[in-house]
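Quiz preparation item.
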């Protein structure tokens, strides 16, 4: 596994394809390692002629674990955010965007297409706003602007995420994560349990970090509303969101697209908070059109409108 010294920490990364091709930087979501990007998705991007870079965010996988950071109460931080106060955190999503920039510097890459999923979409949004000169395009998948007032997870998704499991009981951890996937996954495009279990076990063997996931969650809470940053984005931008997302409801994707000038919005019926194999070709086609500049910008609907009235593809 390749590593780079970035922003005072070690970042583990993998590259696929030719470095002579246009670079695509993939940023994964909360608690997810670089191996969470489906291999067929990576292979498809390479076949389309892109140089794909994926990495473990700080505090997960084979990247640095910031165990020296003072522990904070997650529930207290969330409460403070609800009443408009800024909670304390060891780092924010801005720091994680700096990590992404540092990785591009380490690889000698000037500009890249930035693609992020969930928390990774939030980091990608910050990157595109703060580092416009380094951004060829932005793709925000199943993510949010962080604006107060947007709907949160369904009760089932929230309960699944908050249900504890003994980190020393491997089978209990696997059962917990399987349950999360069942609740937030795509209802119209289910992933077989054996595939889910294989991915969970692989992640547990490679580099789990329960405390790191908590610190990442605190970073999300502490980073607040990104709407002012989104309004400054001028690169080609695309928002993809599942209509059936139980973790980050589709209104969050609509709101994100509405805040970014000229962003295209693609709501996929039956898609939840995952990247199911059945949607691989569709997602690759959307990305290829967008990255090559062939996407016609659409005016996204207001986040106050019903999701069903949005532009569907």
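Solution:
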């Amino acid at each position: 596994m390749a590593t780079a010294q970035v922003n005072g920490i070690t970042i583990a990364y993998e590259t696929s394809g030719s470095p002579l091709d246009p670079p695509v930087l993939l940023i994964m979501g909360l608690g997810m390692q670089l191996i969470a990007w489906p291999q067929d998705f990576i292979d498809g991007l390479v076949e389309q002629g892109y140089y794909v870079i994926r990495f473990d965010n700080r505090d997960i996988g084979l990247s640095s674990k910031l165990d020296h950071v003072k522990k904070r109460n997650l529930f207290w931080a969330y409460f403070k955010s609800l009443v408009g106060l800024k909670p304390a955190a060891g780092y924010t999503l801005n720091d994680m965007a700096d990590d992404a920039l540092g990785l591009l510097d380490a690889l000698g890459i000037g500009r890249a297409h930035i693609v992020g999923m969930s928390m990774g979409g939030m980091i990608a949004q910050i990157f595109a706003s703060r580092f416009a000169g380094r951004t060829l395009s932005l793709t925000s998948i199943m993510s949010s602007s962080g604006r107060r007032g947007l709907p949160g997870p369904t009760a089932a998704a929230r309960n699944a995420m908050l249900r504890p499991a003994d980190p020393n009981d491997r089978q209990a951890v696997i059962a917990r994560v399987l349950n999360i996937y069942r609740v937030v996954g795509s209802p119209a495009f289910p992933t077989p349990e054996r595939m889910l279990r294989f991915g969970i076990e692989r992640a547990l063997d490679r580099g789990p970090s329960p405390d790191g996931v908590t610190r990442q969650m605190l970073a999300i809470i502490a980073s607040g509303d990104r709407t002012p940053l989104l309004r400054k984005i001028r690169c080609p931008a695309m928002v993809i969101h599942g209509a059936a997302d139980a973790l980050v409801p589709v209104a969050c994707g609509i709101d994100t697209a509405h805040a970014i000038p000229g962003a295209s919005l693609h709501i996929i019926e039956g898609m939840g908070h995952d990247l199911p194999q059945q949607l691989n070709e569709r997602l690759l086609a959307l990305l290829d059109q967008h990255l090559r500049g062939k996407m016609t910008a659409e005016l996204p609907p207001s986040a106050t409108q019903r999701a069903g009235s949005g532009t569907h593809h």
